[in-house]
Amino acid sequence: MIVKVKKRNSNSKIIKIVFIATLFLGIIYISLLIKEENLLSLEIEKAKESEKIALQLEKEKIEKERLDAQRLILIEVEKVVDLIGQNNINDIKIVKNKVVYVLNPNTNIDAINIRYGAMALTKKSFKEIVVVVDLENILKGKL
């Protein structure tokens, strides 16, 4: 009878150690990738939040500018009404970017002509006087 004694080969131990080390390093690498992905998603969320805040601030700024422009237009219209006299004004309209004053035919419009100069367009008829003032020029001077 032949009995063969199997010796443990040192190569197989080395292969097992290399395999276990590779498996361990692979697990560490995958866990680092997952952690990096989570950090990236958190950064993306922070960027979106900061973008929302920036948009909100921009909207608030635009709203404030709009309210300031409305306030300036109202003040300017009130000044014209004070200069001419409220009883001489039939109607005041804002059409697109112009203020239209419809006045009685016997109204003295020298105050408007002095205040606005060439910016005020006037049309006189037997029934009424129409004065049109461009809002862009008013707002440029005030803002």
List keywords for this structure.
63% helix; 3 helices; alpha+beta; four-stranded antiparallel beta sheet; rod-shaped
Tell me what you see in this structure.
With 143 residues, this protein is α+β, with helices and mostly antiparallel strands. The protein has one domain (9-143). Helix content is 63%, strand content 17%. It has three helices and four strands, in the order H-E-E-H-E-E-H. The protein has helices at 10-84, 110-116, 135-142; strands at 89-95, 98-103, 120-124, 129-134. The protein has a four-stranded antiparallel beta sheet with strand order 1-2-4-3. Helix 1 crosses helix 3. The termini are far apart. The mean pLDDT is 88.
- Helices and strands: which structural class? alpha+beta
Distance between the termini: 112 Å
Main sheet strand line-up? 1-2-4-3
Q: Kindly state the number of beta strands.
A: 4
Give me the Rg, rounded: 41 Å
Mean pLDDT: 88
Main sheet characteristics: 4 strands, antiparallel
What is the helix/strand order?
HEEHEEH
What shape does the CA trace take?
rod-shaped
- Please tell me the total number of domains: 1
- Share of helical residues: 55-70%
Q: Strand share of the residues?
A: 15-25%
Q: Count the helices. How many?
A: 3
Spans where pLDDT lies below 50 across 5 or more residues: none
